[in-house]
């Protein structure tokens, strides 16, 4: 609790003390709000920078949920795959499967990423129009 002093004894009446106490609470709340708002703005700026970096990346980027369903793809990925973001959202990346990788190969890929490790390798994927393309991938 903050204290206000005056050289004269009993200078502040009970109402004055209550008002000063309420004011210190209000000021404290305002300072906490300003600090929280400043932190929120810093986080928003960081997210905006991340978004720009992702969208302008020369590498294709796919973000999935824990079940492997696509939540986000960057413009480079849509350009390479031929799919729009709307067509990919909620889909599983297996939509790109060319059928050329063995089931054992996919098992190794999934075992690696589900264990928290990064999988690196090449995938022969299929675009929306059916043409195949090679992709060097890092999946984590």
Q: Overview of this structure, please?
A:
- The protein is of the alpha+beta class.
- It has two domains: 11-56; 57-139, PAS domain (Beta-Lactamase).
- Helix content is 46%, strand content 16%.
- The chain has four helices and four strands, in the order αββαααββ.
- It has a two-stranded antiparallel ribbon.
- The model has no long low-confidence stretch (mean pLDDT 88).
What is the H/E string? HEEHHHEE
Query: Beta-sheet strand percentage?
Result: 15-25%
Measured distance between first and last alpha carbons: 50 Å
Structural class: alpha+beta
CATH topology of the largest domain: Beta-Lactamase
How many E strands?
Answer: 4
Short summary of the structure?
By secondary structure, the protein is α+β, with helices and mostly antiparallel strands.
List keywords for this structure.
single chain, 140 residues, alpha+beta, Beta-Lactamase, two-stranded antiparallel ribbon, elongated
Question: How are the SSEs ordered, and which strands pair?
Answer:
Elements: H1 14-55, E1 62-64, E2 70-73, H2 75-81, H3 85-88, H4 103-114, E3 119-126, E4 132-139
Antiparallel strand pairs: 1-2, 3-4
């Amino acid at each position: 609790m903050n204290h206000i002093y005056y050289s004269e004894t009993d200078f502040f009446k009970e109402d004055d003390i209550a008002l000063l106490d309420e004011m210190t609470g209000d000021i404290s709340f305002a300072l906490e709000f300003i600090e929280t708002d400043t932190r929120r703005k810093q986080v928003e700026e960081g997210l905006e920078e991340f978004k720009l970096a992702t969208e302008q990346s020369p590498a294709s980027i796919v973000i999935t949920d824990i079940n492997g369903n696509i939540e986000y793809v960057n413009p480079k990925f849509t350009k390479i795959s031929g799919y729009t973001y709307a067509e990919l959202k909620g889909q599983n990346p297996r939509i790109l499967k060319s059928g050329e990788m063995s089931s054992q190969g996919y098992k190794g890929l999934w075992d690696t990423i589900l264990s928290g490790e990064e999988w690196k390798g090449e995938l022969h994927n299929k675009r929306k129009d059916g043409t195949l393309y090679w992709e060097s991938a890092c999946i984590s």
